[in-house]
Amino acid sequence: MGSRASSLLREEEIEEIKKETGFSHSQITRLYSRFTSLDKGENGTLGREDFQRIPELAINPLGDRIINAFFPEGEDQVNFRGFMRTLAHFRPIEDNEKNKDPTASEPLNSRINKLLFAFQLYDLDRDDKISRDELLQVLRMMVLRMMVGVNISDEQLGSIADRTIQEADQNGDNSISFNEFIKVLEKVDVEQKMSIRFLH
Amino acid sequence: MEDFWVVVLAGLKVWVYLIVALLMVPAMFGFSLGISETYMKILVKTLEWATLRIQTVNKEQHIIESSSSNGLIQRDDGSMEEELGELRRSRPKPPVGGDFTLSDCFYFYRRGIEDIVEDEVTQRFSSEELVSWNLLTRTNNVFQYISLKLTMVWGLGVFIRYCILAPLRITLASIGLTWLVIGTTAVGFLPNWRLKSWLSDWVHVMCYRICARGLSCTIHYYNKENRPRKGGICVANHTSPIDIVILCNDGCYAMVGQSHGGLMGVLQRAMARSCPHIWFERADMKDRHLVAKRLTDHVNDNTKLPILIFPEGTCINNTSVMMFKKGSFEIGGTIYPVAIKYDPQFGDAFWNSAKYNMVSYLLRMMTSWAIVCNVWYLPAMTQQEGEDAVQFANRVKSAIAHRGGLVDLSWDGGLKRAKVKDMFKEEQQKMYSSMVVGSEEDNSSHSD
């Protein structure tokens, strides 16, 4: 009789997701519709190719990294809970959350967690350090090296990477730790730049 | 037992006579008995009542209906330069080396996540969501029991649609198509007098009118003075195969397409007997020069009917117009743009070919309430000096999108099935590269 999108999502699940991510009831149901529309195989999970089907994401230079962020270590499929957990990082920080009880666990969309999300997109091997190689890898994804006109050589990228690490590195281990990462970006308006304005 | 069959037979006879008298004859001669108008009026009243019911019940129960016509997120849509400029504001520009900060990636991450939540393209390949329910099961995404009355009306609707309307429509459609085949074959035997083309036109229009009745189509044509003329090319946005029925109710066109086997093949060959259409073998379609030559020859002959082409190349869900393929715009004929907009309240005309095959699609059409659409004929356009085919195609596309109230997209409708070209990613990379390297131009070009 056609798919009844939200009837497949039980009320208890919606409540759990609400607690974990902070999204509202209607936002969760609408994101669930989006999830099911991306799920072409109709098996309740998304694979990498389901994300690749979005043209705007496929042309994003860092698209592959972003898609990777949805999949936990070594897995190929993400379910709706995992999908929401990753999206929750981009929820805007609301005023009433800023003055919350400091002993409560950090919400997924706090400044620290947003920065951690960005950090993990650089730090592929999860050793809590951004090495020169890892930085170089990201730089190579973002720029165009092989066309006539605007070209950046690998040496130039190398020197950019070196300079960036030099500016950030404080303990001299030639890589950027998470704390050094936070320090470098302390003036950047992370709350606004890493947030998406969800309606209702 | 025998009496039973006698009664059934008599009933069938009455049924057929009624259809012929009340529906076919007016269709053949182009006048209307007002039956469809009355049906539409009743339908509109019922749907308004249903919407009101749903709204009242929702208010009583404090259910906030998330309006599906709004987007899910609100975007900033700043350009890459603007956004990266803001991100980099917190640090001074470095004296040497490229301009890069660790926060540059934030722009791409945010854009990527926004596109995962909501993008412009993938939504065009599935049916449009309705603002208020139109009493069809298929559009009811959120199962909510509203009230007994509403459910009863819905049940009555199901009965009417499946047991009364659908058989009627199937009968009409089959009569229409059979008559098309017989009529065009008959006309095909006549020698090439002027009478032949007049008769051919009449047979075609008549049969399409019967088919339109077979789908309960209500069509409004605007600006009929701009109707396509002989020797031109008519382009329109594509939503479903029914577009052909809609357009051919008001004029005759030469069709272009692949020759099929089976029932479609019979139709195609019959139609080709009475007036020239352009059917290609599957292999020939790949040969762009051959296609262009045949189209050019047809267009240059002023006695031949205008060609009907859908430059999007695939069915889109009627909320937007996607990239027009430049092939038809290179031929050099006069282009007559036509905008077609369906009213989704009465029936969803979009053919989602990934989900439904042709037969189930037609059955869905015949069990909707009705097909209501508006057709606008736009003034003719020709390629201007210094404009290449792609620019011309985009100009026509914008005009059609503007007239029909559709979103004008440059994305290729082929993305329904194919992957996006790497070229677009390279454009993004190029733009970013110039933002990194831009500062290099201020320095002297020494390599170290």
TrEMBL record, chain A:
Keyword Ribosomal protein attached: no
GO molecular function, one term: calcium ion binding
Domain EF-hand: 110-145, 156-191
Keywords assigned: Calcium, Cell membrane, Cytoplasm, Lipoprotein, Membrane, Metal-binding, Myristate, Nucleus, Phosphoprotein, Protein transport, Repeat, Transport
UniProt keyword S-adenosyl-L-methionine present: no
One Pfam short name: EF-hand_7
Localization in the cell: Cell membrane; Cytoplasm; Nucleus
InterPro entries in the cross-refs: Calcineurin_B_homologous, EF-hand-dom_pair, EF_Hand_1_Ca_BS, EF_hand_dom
Residue spans crossing the bilayer: none
Gene Ontology cellular-component terms listed: cytoplasm; nucleus; plasma membrane
Any one biological process term the GO annotation gives: protein transport
Family (UniProt): Belongs to the calcineurin regulatory subunit family. CHP subfamily.
Protein name, UniProt field: Calcineurin B homologous protein 1-like isoform X1
Gene name in the database record: LOC120036022
From TrEMBL, chain B:
Keyword entries, A-Z: Acyltransferase, Endoplasmic reticulum, Lipid biosynthesis, Lipid metabolism, Membrane, Phospholipid biosynthesis, Phospholipid metabolism, Transferase, Transmembrane, Transmembrane helix
SUPFAM superfamilies xrefs: Glycerol-3-phosphate (1)-acyltransferase
Pathway membership: Lipid metabolism; Glycerolipid metabolism; triacylglycerol biosynthesis; Phospholipid metabolism; CDP-diacylglycerol biosynthesis; CDP-diacylglycerol from sn-glycerol 3-phosphate: step 1/3
Main location: endoplasmic reticulum
Domain Phospholipid/glycerol acyltransferase: 232-343
Biological process, per Gene Ontology: phospholipid biosynthetic process; triglyceride biosynthetic process
Gene Ontology CC annotation, any one: endoplasmic reticulum membrane
Name this polypeptide is given: Glycerol-3-phosphate acyltransferase 3-like
Organism name: Salvelinus namaycush
Gene symbol of the encoding locus: agpat9l
